[in-house]
Amino acid sequence: MKVLILLAVLIPVGAYPLFQPLDCADIYNQGSKASGVYQIYPGGATYPFYVYCDMDTEGGKWTVLQRRMDGTVNFFRRWEQYKRGFGQASGEYWLGLETIHLMMLKKNYELRVDVEDFEGAAVFAKYSSFSISPMAINAELDGYTLHVSGFTDGGAGDSLSYSNGAKFSTFDRDQDTNDSVNCAVNQGGGFWHYSCTNANPNGIYAWGRYDSNGVFWWQWKSATYSLKAISMKMRPVSLVYSEE
Question: What is the number of other CB atoms lying within 10 angstroms of the CB of residue 15?
Fold first, then answer.
């Protein structure tokens, strides 16, 4: 698979770029309209992050925050890794909870989840409102709580609303509501596990076979089928505030 790697137009001022896009929508609006890997700066000029920008799907401008496609990256990770991010934007990766939260301080976002099976069928689910700990003074102490609503069915069904209001959980920071098990251990990866989950994009890559801790989207294939590919992507719908 060939991956197009592109950089947004950067004009250096000293050691820092003049153009510091917050997300892929900023990059698209500056004229870079090819899907690929770009740099964004949600934490400021000294903290760039590489992300995959989907500039083709439904008008483009999507910042991919999570992607699975081939099982090359282990998603059974500690809290700190889910906070900071891991993997490579050209392949499988998780952007990082803190980075996602920083983006949301400036813009309101929608979410799209694209899923694909090994037989070539591809469907999606879309949510018009997507945020994590929007009112918290400290998002991490609040557990990066998921807020999602406004479901639109693209054939996948709604498997994420079950996690609305859930804190993010990993095997070393159990924040689910299930007193009997650690859902992140049971499901094979960190996520907004409630008790436990209907969506498991960060589970064990199981190549289509039955596995209750595989990569699944319950309302489409239930937990009896581990998906070939899944990606979660966010796109701004409005500014939180104006700097003008």
Answer: 7
- What confidence tens digit (pLDDT) does each residue in 186-223 have? 999 999 999 998 999 999 999 987 768 999 999 999 99
List pLDDT tens digits, range 10-44.
444 456 678 899 999 999 999 999 999 999 999 98
**Nearest to residue 116, comparing CAs of 68, 65, 52?**
68
**Token code pair at residue 12:** 């250096």
* CA distances (Å), origin 149, targets 33, 43, 159: 28, 26, 12
- What are the C-alpha distances in Å from 204 to residues 53, 64, 152, 194? 24, 20, 27, 18
Token duo for residue 216: 């699944």
Is residue 207 within 8 Å of 71, Cβ to Cβ?
yes
For 162, the 3-state DSSP assignment is helix
